[in-house]
Amino acid sequence: MINHFVIILLYIVLCLAVALFGRRRKWGFWGYLWSSVLFTPLLGLLFLLASDPKKST
Questions:
Q1: CA angle at residue 49 from 27 to 38, to 5 degrees?
Q2: 35 neighbors 19 (Cβ within 8 angstroms)
Q3: What's the CA gap between 26 and 10, in Å, rounded?
Q4: Dihedral of CA 19/22/27/29: which sign?
Q5: What distance in Å separates the CA atoms of residue 42 and residue 45, rounded to the nearest whole number?
Q6: Alpha carbon distance 15, 33 (integer Å)
Q7: Which of 17, 32, 42, 49 could form a disulfide with 22 if both were Cys (CB 3.0 to 4.6 A apart)?
Q8: Taking a C-beta distance cutoff of 8 angstroms, is the pair 47, 35 a contact?
Q9: pLDDT tens-digit readout, 9-24
Q10: CA separation for the pair 34, 48 (Å, rounded)
Q11: Is the pLDDT of residue 2 over 80?
Q12: Is 3 helix (H, G, I), strand (E, B) or coil?
């Protein structure tokens, strides 16, 4: 039971870390958070690395 809790908590923390790194990128915080949650944090990180910085207006 504890092991499942730790795995889920680690997954959520990794998703939040990807989202925090992506907050100044094209999709923003919420886009990278949901891509990490839906696919995996590793795939979310790949999306982050492949994205362009947000254009300033």
A1: 55
A2: no
A3: 25
A4: positive
A5: 5
A6: 6
A7: 32
A8: yes
A9: 999 999 999 999 999 9
A10: 12
A11: no
A12: helix
Distance CA 57, CA 48 (A): 21
> Looking at residue 1, what DSSP letter applies?
-
Query: Helix, strand, coil shares of the chain as percentages rounded to 5?
Result: 70, 5, 25
Identity of residue 49: L
φ, ψ (nearest 5 deg) of residue 49: -65, -30
* Neighbouring residues of 51: CB distance < 8 A, sequence distance ≥ 6: 22, 25, 26, 27
Structural contact between residues 40 and 15, judged by C-beta atoms closer than 8 angstroms:
no
Distance from C-alpha of 18 to C-alpha of 8, rounded to nearest angstrom: 16
